[in-house]
Amino acid sequence: MIPSFDALPGGCLVTDLNREVRFANAYLHEELGAAPGTLIGRKIESLLTPASRIFYDSYIQPMLLHEKRCNEVDITLISATGERIPAVVSVRVLHGDGEGIIWCIMRADNRNAVYQDLARARENLKIQAQELRDLSITDDLTGLPNRREFERLVNRELQASERRGYGLSIVMIDIDHFKSINDGFGHASGDETLRQFGAALRAIMRQDEVVARYGGEEFIACLVDCDGDGAAAFALRVHGAAKTVLLNAQAITVSIGVATWRPQSPEALPEWTRRADKALYAAKAAGRNCTRFADDGSVAP
Predict the structure, then answer these.
(1) 111-126 pLDDT per residue, tens
(2) Whether the model pTM is above 0.70
(3) Which of 35, 174, 205, 235 could lock onto 291 through a cystine, CB 3.0 to 4.6 A?
């Protein structure tokens, strides 16, 4: 007896090489209206209609001899009361001790319903997999890409820019005096400020711009095919977006650092990001609410 087969939600039986049933699970006994255990010892031919016996000899058996398996073929079974039951079977040879043949059996009139259930299950799995992927690449507070996804996207753009010969700019953005927001108004207000600023950034993003939450109150952007002038224009838009985020009727401000990468530059993304971060801290040192560029040290309002 093979106990693990008995729990399958479908018909399953095992025959020896003499076509004698060695095991039939409870599901198959029930489908055929046979008392438990009464199928054991019977020849497989006794469960088939005459036409299905011919099909077994002329097609299934040769397939088992040559391919060791036969997948999804239609046969007709005979129940204990003589009822003809259309079925779909997949058959394969078992190897090892007690070599024999295993039959997996499904009622043909249930096939469409089973396939529909399987299709729905596959679709649900796809949806769940996409939801899990979205969760893994998205900052749950702002809805922007997270740091890991940002780095993946930028590394892809770096490869493209090498081939096409255009530059990229990294922009680091920090909400000014964010600790004071948390301390003075509470962390819930701090979270709401981050959410509103994330939404304001999404509203100004263009097709060739990637904006993400880098961590804490820091955000980061990658501007494709963008020189210093383009980065300065983007920074002005970010400063304008900050003005739309109000805390206790007072608009927030941001400090911004910019570093531009050019084709054939030896810098990898971490070093390039560090340069933008240094420019950001220079902007803070210059009084905040301004932009500093790593390349020329200039400050813009």
Answers:
(1) 666 667 667 778 888 8
(2) no
(3) 235
